[in-house]
Design goal:
The structure is a homotetramer of 253-residue chains.
Chain A lengths: L1 E8 L2 H5 L7 H20 L4 E3 L5 E5 L5 H14 L4 E8 L2 H13 L12 E3 L11 E8 L2 H6 L4 H20 L6 E4 L2 E5 L5 H15 L3 E8 L2 H17 L6 E4 L4
Parallel strand pairs in A: 4-5, 9-10
Antiparallel strand pairs in A: 1-3, 1-4, 2-3, 6-8, 6-9, 7-8
Helix pairs in contact in A: 6-7
Chain lengths: 253, 253, 253, 253
């Protein structure tokens, strides 16, 4: 099972315009630092957070228990002008896990309902043996040569966003998630997605929008190790001049 | 004219996998903190940076001169394990400005060529009277009620990404840029885009994907003030129950 | 036993002037952020770091094992332009623990010897039952009324530094340490120091330099809990109008 | 004239124990990040902040005007759970400047009076030609060989603190300030202090406590440049095997 946590800044929208609109640069700094901060705390237990929408962060939290979540909420309350609520869920697929986490939090009230620092747990992985994470690290083939070094910076980010949109659309149908992690990189928590289905998705996108993608896949009992194996898989594909669409690593030598 | 700066981490891709893939959480923290850091320094001169691809940041830098740019490069070199190169360009439209900035940097060598801490200036706004920024702050109508509080966190971010993809596609054709700034918010540096064209884009997206958007527009000699006016415009539309598609503010009472 | 870790930036002095002196503000930011960063990671396991000399940090690390230390070194290497080495020691007194930690690291080579990212462990607390921390939180009576609000900011900091110097001198003789933690606050890891000795030290300082101090003392199996109890003790003394010199809390109701 | 700013966290003491004592590690992170943050903003205008007591920061702000100060207050309010008030003063000596800055702020109410985000300006340097900063960068001769590599980490910091206490005592009598900036380094804003007096202070300390110190001195219209020249002076003394007590640099070749 994969465990996911939804981290939501409480009543953030109204706060950003009270008493009048806050300076955009300050909000951008606040959001980026809050993300980096939560990341550092969740990573201490081998979890991983994705920036998602910044005011709503999704994290793979296999390995974190209730106290770990409460300590993060406390540390944010003590150092930021805002508080965070969390929802936690575990399931066979990442999409279902985040859905359960979201519902658990929504049942406690709306994001702008005045609800404050709630920790709503649908379910946690109790038995370490049930903890399993499959993650795919996907990137664009030769992005530096084909985009970064020849297209304008915005046009390159437009192409990367286009690839993201297509990947999100197709992976979501398979119960997998997809997050942009910078550069031309995407991370997909994808428990239950088999290699054939992922390969087909990459082939279809190549045919539909002409963007060549590859994916390293890793499997472990936590996202840190799964992501690392996925990175190794990606390196192996590169060394093979991107001839493989995907490369799975299930254990490290 | 609008002045834009492309900030690129030197040889970042190879660095992230040397000697072996670096822990993903560390890279996420590094990228977010570098962005927040550059933001704070550029905001000190009323500029604004967008996270774009994190390893490539685009900023509106009206008001920043050559020394301001060099000081930022120095401060990053002194505090991070990576260095940054920059390209600067100014033009009548944001897309053209970032294109000139990108070309200036590309001419100094590729992103992975070993080129290090380059400051490539195509042109800077010399005369303050030539400095002009039009910015549109676009958001989704009633996102909390229609998405955040009823859909799963991932499905909401999927819809927001979909809106982003459509906005990027249509605004780009008009020489405007579009950046996601968190939540359900987008910022578009859009010098030269008239109100009718922007209104049509919002109406078309409503019809094509059923997502209702609104835009506050601001105009000033720097992006900080233009963005603030755009925020005020957005507030006015909200107070009018989203009856307006757009609201332009050209000066503050 | 109390476990202490010495965290030392590798070859820092020479780095700060290579190739020429680095901007002082950048160094100040680097040092403060490295401290905050290590703090966040050590606090995740209920440890506590003191800024000490910034390039040499002393931490109480009861509860942290070898892997916890290695993960911190890796995360710093991945996000900073410098690396850190560590020495770890455990003993009956804090002074002896940091002495053992220092010797373990010194035996691996000098701070400017080119030694890089060493983890030198003299000994770790293996059995949780052996883990014990006594911490005293000491502050100046009515500092706001007697100093902050009437003396110049520098003269107040001069008096606080004077109190620190006297406290360091006397506590050190008892095998206890003393760290300034901001404002008019000091924290003393002081396993083995009895209440009579601490009271006498506070009385002597009052007589010698006329600065009235009080101390809350806490005891637990980790510094986070011990420091919290010490805070409660300090609050109780305040509520009693500073009539007590010290107040010990051994467990929370 | 030298301009100094006192930055004080509003009502900080009570906040740290409301509703109950906040986790010490969180407070340490908050203080260090607030310092680094203000530093980055003040450094953007070539000023320099000293951590002082963390809840009270003293900064040399030649080059910063009223708006610069207000922007910093706004950015802190938007990103931290606390607000800051500031006092500003300019005079012929650093001690007098910070005294005027402190008085200006004290006149607006006590640190715990509920006074919030005050900017109290006694006087600012209006004419750039009046702006002058003399700064001495003082360090301990061969600290690595004589202390760091042979004494315990705490005993070394004890000796450094002892040197600081003696330096603060003697420099204060001359109207100069002294701040610890990490390692074995001290920075003294010392407008008006002549070379003979500083030399005598270093000689006296050598005789009184046996700690050998040296000082690089710089003079410029802002602290960033003055500190850089002081660094160069220190390097020159090192190259001469610490034969000189002090070395003054008034301009860079």
């Amino acid at each position: 099972m994969i465990q996911m946590t939804l981290i939501q800044i409480d009543n953030y929208g109204p706060w950003t315009v009270t008493p009048k609109p806050r300076t955009e640069s300050d909000l951008q700094i606040l959001q980026a630092e809050l993300f980096a901060d939560v990341q550092r705390q969740i990573a201490a237990k081998k979890g991983l957070v994705f920036f998602t929408r910044f005011d709503n962060l999704l994290a793979v939290t296999n390995g974190l228990n209730e106290e770990d979540h409460m300590r993060i909420q406390r540390s944010i309350r003590n150092r930021y002008p805002v508080t965070i609520s969390m929802g936690v869920g575990a399931a066979e697929t990442a999409h279902e896990a985040q859905r359960l986490a979201t519902i658990a939090l929504q049942e406690k009230g709306g994001a702008q309902s005045g609800r404050k620092e709630i920790l709503a747990i649908n379910n946690l992985i109790e038995n370490p043996e049930d903890s399993f994470v499959q993650a795919a690290h996907i990137d664009i083939n030769s992005v530096t040569e084909t985009l970064t070094d020849i297209e304008s910076a915005f046009d390159t980010s437009f192409m990367v966003n286009k690839a993201q949109h297509y990947l999100m659309t197709k992976l979501r149908e398979k119960g997998a998630l997809l997050f942009f992690i910078g550069g031309d990189n995407f991370m997909s928590p994808c428990n239950g997605l088999n290699e054939e289905d992922l390969t087909k998705i990459l082939i279809d996108i190549k045919e539909e929008i002409g963007i060549g993608l590859k994916a390293g896949i890793g499997r472990a009992d936590n996202i840190e190790d799964a992501a690392y194996m996925a990175d190794i898989g990606l390196e192996i594909i590169r060394e093979g001049n991107n001839k493989e669409w995907i490369h799975l690593i299930e254990e490290l030598q």
